[in-house]
Write a structure and sequence with these properties.
Layout lengths: L4 H19 L18 E4 L7 E5 L4 E7 L2 E6 L11 E3 L2 E3 L6 E3 L5 E3 L11 E4 L2 E4 L1
Antiparallel strand pairs: 1-10, 2-3, 3-4, 5-6, 6-7, 7-8, 9-10
Length: 134
């Protein structure tokens, strides 16, 4: 057996392990927060939520949007496809990077598959400049 053969096998095994390990968490649901936030929990100030966009509060599993000036909506931040946390809000959609699902900032409806259902609405209360869970 040539002297380089064990090294080549080692390198190939390490590369295969790295490839499998690196992909093992892709698309897996992110862990849930330790506890569900209670009603009255302040999420944000109204000035923090951009018109036509939104902000993720992953630790609270909530995304708050402002589809039009002065109209605030809230949805779960857990994608209905495989339970990943959505990753961003841009161009009028709430986006899940795990598999490409997109949801409307207006009503949480699915605008791009593979998500099978809309994001569940969360009840919020806007009082003055404060947005809280209702």
């Amino acid at each position: 057996m040539p002297v380089d053969e064990p090294k080549r096998r080692t390198v190939l095994a390490a590369a295969a392990f790295a490839a499998v390990t690196g992909c093992s968490t892709y698309g897996e649901p992110k862990s849930a927060p330790a506890s569900t936030p209670q009603a009255g929990t302040e999420l944000a100030k109204t000035s923090q939520i951009p018109v036509g966009g939104g902000v993720l509060f992953g630790d609270k599993q909530v995304v708050v949007t402002q589809p039009t000036a002065g109209t605030f909506k809230a949805f779960t931040s857990v994608c209905t496809h495989e339970g990943c946390q959505v990753a961003s809000v841009a161009n009028g959609t709430i986006n899940c990077d795990c598999h490409g699902s997109k949801f409307s900032i207006k009503d949480g409806s699915v605008v791009h598959d593979p998500a099978p259902q809309p994001l569940a609405a969360k009840q919020i209360k806007v009082a003055g400049d404060s947005i809280t869970l209702a």
